[in-house]
Amino acid sequence: MYSKRGRKAQVTLFVILAIVIVGIVLAVYFLIPKNPRSPVIENFNPGTYITDCIKDDIDRYVENLSLQGGYMNPEAYPEQYYTFLETRIQYLCYTDDEENPCIFQKPQLIQDIESQLTNRLKSKITSCLNSFKANTENKVNLLTICTQSQLNQEVHLYLKKIVLNITCPIKIETKSNQRLEFNQFLVEKESPLYEQATLAKQIVNEEISGNAINFFADYASRNQDFLLTLDNRFTSIRLYNITAANLLNSEGNPLTFLFTVKNPKYI
Known about the structure:
Layout: H1 2-31, H2 46-66, E1 81-84, E2 87-94, E3 103-104, H3 109-136, E4 142-145, E5 152-158, E6 161-173, E7 179-190, H4 193-209, H5 212-222, E8 226-234, E9 237-248, E10 254-262
Parallel strand pairs: 2-10
Antiparallel strand pairs: 1-2, 2-3, 4-6, 5-6, 6-7, 8-9, 9-10
């Protein structure tokens, strides 16, 4: 009889201890101050939006100028482009003189390409910003986008990429009263254009020195990053093709840079 009462007493003691422990745990959870959770920042990122909006235009403009010797609108006077398969291709080196080498027409080729892309993309950037505003302003309390005078854009060519740097102050106040501020956006595209333009300039310098054919043969034999081909079936005119060996455009076509040289002295 005594043992049964003892066991009941032990069970009662365990129950009481369990209740006390649970009470302590609940007290700790509810009474001890906890660090507040960081608010979740809502996803209103104009940089991502602009990148998606403009990337196809960058590809189109780059392809256009790459197939025309680095220029959107090759110059017509004095005979500064050659028409091949209905495409106008810029002469990078040109002369009709058979006694002297051709003259480098576009020594600032890379800077010219950067300037053309910068100017051509300006209206598209404005359009993308207006589209971002139209798609965002009804989802936030306040949206302020830069004015045209505040907007600035610059394109730069680097090894293996093109970088578009956009400056445009943007302020957003979300529905949850979060304040977001943006100022600069970088749009990067993989591209061999810098290397192609640099090689084109090197070829022109070899044309001027009269060593272009030897340079061409040597380069083609030892370089695997770019395929260099030459069409010289035209009298005193050479059509150069610089193709990236390991890169394709969005349509699966090779990334090609074409330019022409007229150099009668070294036929």
